[in-house]
Model the fold of this input.
Amino acid sequence: MRRAAAAVLVLALGAVGVLAGSARDPGAAGTLSCWPAGERAAYAAYEAALLGSPTRDKLLEWHQLLGAEPHIAGTPGDLRTIERIEKAFKDMGLEVERHTFWALLARPVGASLEILGPEPLRLDIREQALPQDPFASHPDQTAGWNAYSGSGEITAEIVYANYGAKADFEKLRELGVEVRGRIVLCRYGGNFRGYKVKFAQEAGAAGVVIFTDPSDSGYMKGITYPEGGYSNSTCIERGSINTLPYPGDPLTPGREATENAERLDAKEIALPRIPVQPVGWAAANEILQRMSGPGVPEKWQGGLPLAYRLTGGEGLRLRLRVEQERAIIPTSNVIGMLRGASEPGKMMVIGCHHDAWGCGASDPLAGTIALMEAARAFTDRARAGKRPARTVVFAAWGAEEFGIIGSTEWVERERRRLVKDAVAYINLDMASMGPDFNASTSPSLRRVVEEAAAGVPTARAKDGMTVFQAWSRRSEDPMLAGRPRFGELGGGSDHIGFVCHAGIASTSLGGGGSKGNSYHSTYDTLPWYWKVVGEDYEPALMVSRMTLAVSGRMASAPLLPLDPARYGLETRRQLIDITKRAAEAGVIAAPAMGREVAPELARLEGAALQFEAMARDVDRRLLAAVEAGAISGERLARVNALLIEADRAWLSEEGLPGRPWFKNLYAASDEDSGYAPWTLPLFRRAIEHKDRAALDAAEETYLGVFERLREIVTKIGAEVG
Amino acid sequence: MRRAAAAVLVLALGAVGVLAGSARDPGAAGTLSCWPAGERAAYAAYEAALLGSPTRDKLLEWHQLLGAEPHIAGTPGDLRTIERIEKAFKDMGLEVERHTFWALLARPVGASLEILGPEPLRLDIREQALPQDPFASHPDQTAGWNAYSGSGEITAEIVYANYGAKADFEKLRELGVEVRGRIVLCRYGGNFRGYKVKFAQEAGAAGVVIFTDPSDSGYMKGITYPEGGYSNSTCIERGSINTLPYPGDPLTPGREATENAERLDAKEIALPRIPVQPVGWAAANEILQRMSGPGVPEKWQGGLPLAYRLTGGEGLRLRLRVEQERAIIPTSNVIGMLRGASEPGKMMVIGCHHDAWGCGASDPLAGTIALMEAARAFTDRARAGKRPARTVVFAAWGAEEFGIIGSTEWVERERRRLVKDAVAYINLDMASMGPDFNASTSPSLRRVVEEAAAGVPTARAKDGMTVFQAWSRRSEDPMLAGRPRFGELGGGSDHIGFVCHAGIASTSLGGGGSKGNSYHSTYDTLPWYWKVVGEDYEPALMVSRMTLAVSGRMASAPLLPLDPARYGLETRRQLIDITKRAAEAGVIAAPAMGREVAPELARLEGAALQFEAMARDVDRRLLAAVEAGAISGERLARVNALLIEADRAWLSEEGLPGRPWFKNLYAASDEDSGYAPWTLPLFRRAIEHKDRAALDAAEETYLGVFERLREIVTKIGAEVG
Done:
């Protein structure tokens, strides 16, 4: 039935002629649509040279250089990593800035977890050493910890809270299970770990123990490390539990965390107060097998070999001790700049963080190595005399793991310039994890990503298959037959400052599909990566080339390859989903059969479709003019500025309700899990809060956005003539 | 989307007026529609007395009488059970026959299972004794065994085959995993256990070990026995592995297994040749944790705490020894008859088997106790002077567990009489397992089951809720809003002879929803039942009353409450499903959007709907005539005979292709799993064999059935005048 429904939609859209203009085959000739016909061959040769630059050996070299030791933000290993990147960027001939910021970080001091009782048992909070992987036992590796845990020692009974999601705590309340004063035992997955702690603390819990369940990432998925790639019984997921309503330094929201910046009082901000400890499932099994309370609701059972229970019972108590230090600690972004040949004021930014919870072979280095190879390709070409038209910025971000700090501080410092001059941002966090390409992308960037994908071979390609072909075969867009499905951008990595704070068209590129998990553990090492992702670096080659193809076009195309028309289609797609969710939540009535967008949202649907039709028409005329060389110079510069402005039409100075740092009305992270992208967040929030008035107000606001978009596109149309 | 699709269908049917006649509210007055208005009060009083008869204490007493010891068919415990039932029936005043038959049964002689290697390990093939449950350690309990296993000793490497389904063995072939000469380790679930062995043997396996996986019935479902109700680590599912294409005695298909019957040669029939052993998951865990081969496909992982592997590797060998004796052994059905007051030649049959794999508190006694209470209620009323109009037969079947033998032998003996005179069959196997009522029912019996359900309180009823209300709330029929969803009848219990061999309208009544599993294990005991299902016997009271309400009406209503019109609606429902499956299998093209029945099946759809409209019209006139007392005597007797004949319109003397014993063209068990009901089996088989010509031929055959049905209903109409 879903396939049929999608077919209906395509027919409906087809009937109003909306899709016709964007349904070109990106695999056909002429994908360099933003160049005059006479300049295409030269750019194609340049692009071929860019794409020919990355090699398996250089990727391996970067990986070995940056993955040799643990480098948690603010540690000596972090500083050495910063110096290594700085030197590499300088060696390439980039203009390099080490952008240092002073953020409130956390450091583990000590921790322990014991089961009390007749035979007390101290539980392991470190991974097992493996002879096959010396990196995992590097002396700078840490015990398991969650950054920003409260400090203290508690002894308490246990309550199991499944994934620790909002709904899980509601279920416990409904079942009459007391959380107050107890230690919440919950498993990783389902939401951002910080929310597990937030909800537990709000429910009065004394502490939290979070474990990796074998059904989520362990033996139930496949053979475990070191024989296979999945989490073994001691594997621990580290990670920040900061859920402040803004990313970046906890003490300087909205402004740069310089050494002497004005700061909030660290006691006043909502960081966790209770102790929190992550463990592997061997430790969790010791706890769970001693629990004696009632069985759990159906979906709460995990993969350990026992029936999970809601409570431990009176006879079972845990002693949890966590000591952490919070301090303002300097660390740095490394920013390498390749100045543009003809429009140096405009910036294409490519970024990936460099800090990790251990050696970080996957997180972040599977992306960082692609960043380094992209920088090397551009600078090699520059040395050979060919620079991009616009400035390309290569950013290795610091302290991402603590709360996306480095990139946020840089965006906060540069916001005015970025809003005006940034053409796009590409994020590469953990980008090369497997051969299956994916991209979460702002609507306006989707066309250039598709067109680039049509010219890049897929990883381990057989029969010359392109990324576009493999990607769309694997996940077709239900609304656009034959074309790939994009992800939506939410929170979770360094694109957030660019998209959500500055309104910049962004994309997160990546490859997945390998079988394993070492996420945030001491096993996130080169031997793990070689075993699970492979030693051929084919995924990293694919991602490096995709990065070069997209950023190269964004940096050099005479007409900026931004496609504002796509906001119309994507808004309609979102309204279908919003209708479904709003009806499920009871905020609106379910629409009549065959109607995918509720009548309550019909005005906005109309505005979005009308905008798309009009923008697609202007786009056709614009591309024809560019192809013919009929538009250039100042007129083209004005068009390009308007194209940038179209993405900024979604910005709101006051920001989202309760989260003023989030200024983009199109894309945000969600409020209650930190996991799901909230596209058209004003609607999502109205549904979450079951607030019909807010839903209606949101429609008015978004009608205003489309009004601005129409004005901008009208101006572009006027320039085309 | 599914809800919407159902709505469309109802509208479509509504538009041709088909449903109008059957959409009455069975909760309203007048559900005694098969009586003249003037006789309804008297019957209602009689029914109230019947329903008031069953008590918790008597149910408990039957349960203790019959569940005190293991009683496997053919053993001394079985004989004692037969004698107990015989005495009880006689005490009630029934005419009793001990119907003895001589069938090829199997007896366990010895078995062992060892892991070979540097440290050989003998694996447990018996359940652990539990101080809480002395019944489980009764000296007559057996080790785990699968009846009709081959005998022999083998030593071989291991291959894991998931559920041992047809698709699983195909997957192994596709992956290039060798099965020949190896021991297949597979888990219970997904198909009838006999097919696991059949497919393994066909693939050349040397033997089979079948285990209960904790994800299917153990700790992943809930707390295990004895603390909770789910299978503990030693719990073993016994059971027959006979997959002969007919139920009943393996040596006398189609005829009664009398002592001197003509028999097939036991060496010539397709019973298993290789040794087969069932085990609990503690034993399976010992094997699986020593396996070293490649990981399994995604859905093959079970709930044991390790990554499942396809092969054990060369270093790991099992030694399996099974010794069983196959012999022709007598055992008996116990048939109690209450002769009808005015139509003694017509029979209403109620049955449940009495044999078990152990004490059988659930299987079969959760049904047998309801059979006993139903018999007691009827005979109590008879002693008080009120007998049903038609004869009621209470049948406690023997040797069901070996292959539905006792009931089949009786049906084979009585077939001619049953075809002519049986008004319906109610099966009660394991009927009282929980408070949630369900019924798998022939179309023609659905109306009377619904109407009966409207007058019976649901188990543990609050606010006087009826079975009808609770049942339809829990599972609404997607095609009939506000009315409950019926199951389809396939194989698997003693109704099969009545439905599939004799074409008798049948229903299997039951209640479920309890949390636990002791199926075919030594833990299927009274303590288990009391802990898991409860000591209040509310589910058994509900099922006893439903049995009385349905059978009482079938036995006494002047107009037989059979509703042939429903075959029209149900045929159309099946054609929707057949369209989907045939399109998925590529036998026909997917129909155009919005079309639920393929054009290839449109003639039959039309015939079914036309029949329904016509039969519903006759039904309306008939009910009105009965209500007014305008039809009675010979004319009514002719109508009743025609109503019986309508169910027999589905019979085919030659039977199904390759399975001549199966003579009902409406309902059969499937060919390849023994699990799924095959409704309209000629179509199901054509799809399974991807045989388009057979599909077309099936439509012709079914058009013929509807032609016969139309003739019968036309004759009824003529009687009504």
